[in-house]
Amino acid sequence: MIGKQDGLQRRTTPAPRTQAPGYSGIPGWVRALAVLAAVVVVLPLLAMVLRVDWAQFVPLVTSEPSLTALGLSLRTSAASTLLCIVLGVPLALVLARDTFRLQGLLRSLVLLPLVLPPVVGGIALLYTFGRQGLLGRTLDVLGLQIAFSTTAVVLAQTFVALPFLVVSLEGALRTSGSRYEAVAATLGARPGTVFRRVTLPLVLPGLASGAVLSFARSLGEFGATLTFAGSLQGVTRTLPLEIYLQRETDPDAAVALSLVLVAVAVAVVALAYRSPAGARSGSAQRTTARAPAGRTVR
Amino acid sequence: MTLSFQAAVAGRGVDVALTVRPGETVALMGPNGAGKSTLLATIAGLLRPDSGRAELNGRTLFDLDGGKRTWVPPHHRGTALLAQEPLLFPHLSVADNVAFGPRSAGVAKGEAKEQAMRWLADVEADHLAGRRPAELSGGQAQRVAVARALAADPELLLLDEPLAALDIHSAPLLRRLFKRVLAGRQAVIITHDVLDALMLADRVVILENGRIAEEGPTRAVLERPRSSFAAGLAGLNFVPGTLDGGGVRTSEGMKVSGHDEEAGQLPSPGGPGVAVFPPSAVSVFLNDAHGSPRNSFPVTITDLEPHGDLIRVRAGSLAADITPAASADLGLVPGMTVHFVVKAAAVSVYGT
């Protein structure tokens, strides 16, 4: 007797909202500046595409050093993204949900690599893990030499990419709030269960876009890698380093490889901001407490 | 099988002692900001009070008195919380939502699913089992939330305005469901609706400014309110003051004469007391029509509003119900000064 009547007013899943054409309130000069901004970003890319030697493109891109560098870049970026997830998810959770002393300071310090010149990050890493570094001697005794190895590449990439994941995820965690977690706890779920079955699934879109951004940042990493890991073919020479090196000897190869990186970056951005809703509200605000289901980035 | 609870949360000005007997449903009522939700969050373990102790069926929930720091986390309390919004996990199906409690308690997947289906059938929502929460109406979602809370097998059910967010169509259906599931179940329900208190609760506790203003069996509280909030719920005029012979004298010096139905209980003069009378017993006159044993107070009309087929004349905290014809004859408008007249026989006076 209960079920029959309220079926009438079933809520339908909200349709994607499209902006109705109408008054926008944007002054003409703002539009003009917006076009200029787009030009600043697009024109250099266009100029580069125009310089590509298409006849030689495939041989240049598939040359042995190029493929080695691309392979190394993809492998190290994947590894550092994984490291970012393993370390960044707990950090974001602690920053978003816990309250403790010096929390603001910790957040600022963690976000520092976002604004720090990567070469400075590289120097910092060198004085931590390098031979003469803070942990260098200890690691040396254990037979580990990190600097100028592939591990160093991954560490440098993690150093610069971690803030991207933490920022995205912390935003998503704050937006989704902790009310679902509270309900789950009163239903008898221990903290581990709440994390696995409620928190993580709810912020999956934020985590996914954060991971994609971290991957993209790792892929483009140059300064910290060069300083901390050097440029050894097949070991630490990632694609950006290869491009920089080729620029001196074979500009055509540098341009062709740059185009490859642009293509990868475009693919990554497209993946992260696939839905119009995501592009509008940014990566951090993609999960809302009420309707996180429809916007999942998979 | 009792909840005994005492806690103070200094930051929110809450200091309350509460007992819920076995099988008893207690309605927690009071104005917004009185501390009702704070109280529930404290019982559920979502908010840590500054001091106090609570025991549920012999188990300590928390004990923060005298330097002790016993604190049982929410997932070990057996106190399921059902809020105004259903808060179904959006990424789980209806059946998985209901199975969440049993699964968390370590019940195997298949068995948890079976239990979930039984509880869904119990709230007549088994046909929704495969749906996502986003595909449910407000009433359906809240019914599933009830099944989810019950499936967790709580010793104490905490309900925070579970009917407030529903439209007028689904609320009666849910109220009937609550009447059935709350029968013989230990529960605390926050509500603003006097109907919920009458239908669902054995006892009502009125909370004002973080303190218990009044408590007792629901009917008794509504018939003889001792707080202005309870009088408001019962729709009665409420004049607090000091007892003075057969009436109450207010702090402004106004005297309201009345009688006490429970003869022989009228406390000695000078103690705190209230005069209570229904708006329907109040007549409105343009001039002072004083004559014993009538009470007449000059008042300024603040509002006129329809009330059933009558007009409710509001003057500050007092109200009178008169016919539209009488209101038109008197030419009543807000701001006018009139006399509220009520027979002493219609006024109940008792100590508080």
Summed up, what is this model?
Chain A is an all-alpha fold and 298 residues long.
Describe the fold and architecture.
The complex is a heterodimer of chains A (298) and B (352). Chain A has 298 residues and is mostly helical. Chain A has one domain (42-287): MetI-like fold (Orthogonal Bundle). Helices cover 69% and strands 0% of the residues of chain A. Chain A contains 14 helices and no strands. Chain A has helices at 28-51, 54-61, 64-97, 103-115, 118-129, 136-141, 150-176, 179-186, 191-202, 204-220, 223-229, 239-249, 251-272, 276-281. In chain A, helix 8 packs antiparallel against helix 9. Residues 1-16 and 276-298 of chain A have low confidence and may be disordered. Chain B is α+β, with helices and mostly antiparallel strands and 352 residues long. Chain B folds into 2 domains: 3-223, P-loop containing nucleotide triphosphate hydrolases (Rossmann fold), CATH 3.40.50.300; 237-351, OB fold (Dihydrolipoamide Acetyltransferase, E2P) (Beta Barrel), CATH 2.40.50.100. Chain B has 9 helices and 22 strands. Chain B has helices at 36-44, 94-104, 109-122, 138-151, 170-182, 194-200, 218-223, 228-234, 324-330, and strands at residues 3-9, 14-20, 25-29, 51-56, 59-63, 70-71, 79-82, 156-160, 187-190, 203-208, 211-217, 237-244, 247-249, 255-257, 272-277, 282-285, 294-300, 303-307, 310-315, 318-322, 337-343, 348-351. In chain B, the strands form 5 sheets. A 6-stranded mixed sheet of chain B has the order 7-8-9-3-10-11, sandwiched between helices. In chain B, strands 2-1-4-5-6 form a 5-stranded antiparallel sheet, with helices on one face. The mean pLDDT of chain B is 89. The chains are: A mainly alpha (298), B alpha+beta (352). At the A-B interface, helix 8 and helix 9 of A face strand 7, helix 2, helix 4 and helix 5 of B.
